[in-house]
Amino acid sequence: MIGFRLSAERPPDPRRINDVVVQRLDHVYEVDPELMRDHIQQHDFPAWDTRRIVDSRWEHLAWMHAHWADSVVSGEELISTEE
Amino acid sequence: MTSTLVTDPVIDELVAICGPDNVFADRSSRVNRARVPAPFPVHRWAEHVPDVVVLPTTAEQVSEVVKLANRHRIPVVPRAGGTGLTDGAVPLRHGIVVDVKLMNKILEIDLDDRTVTVQPGINMLKLNEELQQYGVIYPDDPASYPCSLVGGRIGTSGWSLIGGRYGHTRDLVISFQIVLPTGELIWVGDGGGRKVRKSSTGYQLKHLFMGHQGTLGIVTEAVLELVPRPEAEFAAFFSYPDYETAWRSTGALAKSGLATLAGVVLFDEWKLDYLRRDDEAYIPQPDDVRCVVATAMYGTTDEVRPGAKRLMRIGKDTGGAYLGDEISQGDWASRHDRYATPLHGRLRDGQVVPMSWHCEDASINWSQLPQVRREWHEIVARLGDNFRIFDDWGMFAYTNAAFKPWGDYLTEIDVGIWEQELDDAAWDAWVTAKRDIAAVAIAHGGSISACHGACRAGEVDLVPEELGGGWDVMKKVKRVLDPLNIMNPGKYLLDEAYE
Amino acid sequence: MSSTERTDGDNGTDGFVAEWRNGAYNCYSSGHKFCREVCPVMQVTRNEVHTPTAFHANVVAMEKGLLDIADVARDYVHCTGCGACELRCPNTLFTGDFYRFRTRTVQLVKAARALAVDQGIHQPGWQRWVEETSRQKSEPVLGAEVPVSQEHVRDWAAGLDLPIGGETILFCDCEGAFHRTSVPRAAAKLLQRAGVEFGLMREQWCCGGPAAEMGYVDRAREFAKHNVDDWRAVGARRIIVFDPHDYISFTEDYPSYFGDEYDFEIVLFVELLAELIRDGRLPLTHPVERTVTYHDACRLNKRKGIHAAPREVLRAIPGLTFKDVDHVTQWSYCSGAGGGLPIERPDLTAEISRRRVERAAALDVDTLVSACVWSERPLTEQRGALEIMDLLEIVALAAGLEDER
Lengths: 83, 499, 405
What we know:
Shape of chain B: globular
Number of helices of chain A: 2
Oligomer: heterotrimer
CATH architecture of the largest domain in chain B: 2-Layer Sandwich
Helix content of chain A: 25-40%
CATH topology of the largest domain in chain B: Uridine Diphospho-n-acetylenolpyruvylglucosamine Reductase, domain 3
Mean pLDDT of chain B: 96
Largest sheet of chain B: 7 strands, antiparallel
Radius of gyration of chain A: 18 Å
Distance between the termini of chain A: 47 Å
Number of strands of chain B: 18
Mean pLDDT of chain A: 94
Strand order of the largest sheet of chain B: 15-12-14-13-17-18-16
Strand content of chain B: 15-25%
Number of domains of chain B: 4
Largest sheet of chain A: 3 strands, antiparallel
CATH class of the largest domain in chain B: Alpha Beta
Shape of chain A: extended
Strand content of chain A: 5-15%
């Protein structure tokens, strides 16, 4: 589906990763909501916004590599050619 | 909120110099130019509000403003990006803020002699976006790379993340035009030729007019170095089970002699704990990842690839485990614009609060790092015991010297402060802690600040001790060049020059 | 909800500060200012009071009693609502998803403007604009001389034989309906060609987004309520929009007004278009011999992360030479057309557009393609030797629905 539906933007309930971190969407860590109870409260956060930020972060980092150099040498590749 | 020096006739004169659209005396313009990200007593904001703000467009206008200030004995505070981690751009005595952001033009790109001439209000990332088409880059790369400005980099004598390879601001700025505290315009460099990098003519004035935090003038134009745009980048992050091993490995990597090595960064255990709070790269790391060392290389592919192999071997042989491409490449790319974010802040009960980031930096020799680290954490722990608004965010040690990055380290301890709850008692405790942190640096043969400047409250008290006889020379220079104490008065204890 | 409803006493300032102080401190405490060089207004004025940093610091200063909304109301005019600042902010980009707490400068600017309006501080151009919109039900996009009206809101569709109502509605924004009518015409023809059934509203009003952006919150809600009632009345379930500003209104403002009962599917035209082309339902058979670059619409690229679909569409057009500038670089690009800026600071909009066109011209292209109908007027005014086309206009050429002029 390409359209926006409000009801589809509610992320699933969190599952616990460790004492202070939970996860709602795959590969996206979130703070344990209990830790944002007393002094600062979380925003209403639709799923599209989480995805937008995560994608933008990686796109920004890729942009930064390209900004500084023509190519990036991979350490994993160097290790694999070494042995 | 204001002093009484800036009268309507003075504002009329400023308008005559800078034009009616570039002089601002309204409350918003002034209140919004009172602070920088350095520790700021937010509860005493009004004490730092300037009387009037000007946005000049030419060196001549800057010169005329400074001459006017001398005639009327009004303090002048220069402001570029306002991103400094010391408080050079914070007015201590109100007065005129000279904001250079409108002076942001590229004046000349010289691909023959490899220079670019710019006005001081240009940002490095924006400059490099323009330079990219010519295959060159201006590699001055602070954590504020996407927003700090060339003028501020000179005024603070900044440090660059990749300075081990390309040098820091002082190495990358070839010459510049500066308005002296009495209003005269001069050029300083190595000797007189504006594009000459090395000269033995006369005194070496370029260094004198860098890092003075606005106490010796205002830069109005600069000639900058152009280096070939790197063909290849390599970043490798290694993990270690303990600090001792990571520290020794850091030393071995930095002493490798690899010419493309741009920097080595040591993260201590506190820093790892802090990163595990919210950083996706560190949350999944196993418990035995206690310390991390980051390395990066830049240059031609022919140099970087074999150099990288050698670097990987040194990391492994000294006890490091490669953390993988994703964290190495991803975390490294984020370090070109790595400022802490406030929600890192935690109270001791674990609750999240928005804390401001205060980075105490010093230059420390490699041999002294473990002891300094121990003493600094103790100071911050005591602070946190007494006030819940302070949080220890851990330490980094970055290779510090240009081109030969093995001897000393930009050593920083990051402290979160919950500014919403800041009051006089907490501020005084903080200033005391800063003085204690600086004292540790001096006691171990280091320097109070590697890159921010040492004029912040607390640490500034120890500048005379650190500089010794040099402090007397510094005061004489200030008094000769700025006889009426116009440029950024009160900063760096330099009022003592007039006693 | 207008800010007068949020609080009692003190003309709403206390409520405003209470609502925004944590967000403001989140900016103030970090002081990164990574927003500054991507902000289209700041790139032109270089004036620190126009920065997103100042927009947040003002809240802290209001809390400390240093500033009042009257001191800063005019500063808050200087925002196109492009969203570059809040995306580029590390508090969004690096930790916003983790804490479910991100920088919301665009919302803050709207709230500050609403606070000003509540205290009787009006920007004359905006006040007139909203009054005219309320009177005519569409924005006065044709100036004072040529009134817009309900009578003419469907004139753009003359001869296309479009039904009223149905499950799927094509919503046409004010600029398209009255000024750049070639865009909605292209949209309708493309849907017809691809066999998508759709109708128009019985009575379409402005989406209300501009009134909300200018601080006239109650007016904005009136428009929204009318439009939603109209959709319900004809049994609509799916709304297609081509204007990114409408897309923001329908996916962010309307849900905040109506809550869970707001159950419409909102479809962005360019995403539907990419799907229709991909699925072979809309053959692009006519070569378009142009060299183009694409202007990322701010509200798609920065505020919604939508940048792939328009590029996919452009790459599917035969004959076209596409010289792309990546969407991250374009976080700092803008036409200056948003957030009411062209009404209050037309000089700034013109300069922002001039710079955008200059960047396109440097690529040696003949056409700058945009996917935002609002951007196309200021860009056209600065176009020089370039032609400014909407993405739908150029796709209509490729589909053989229009001829090259």
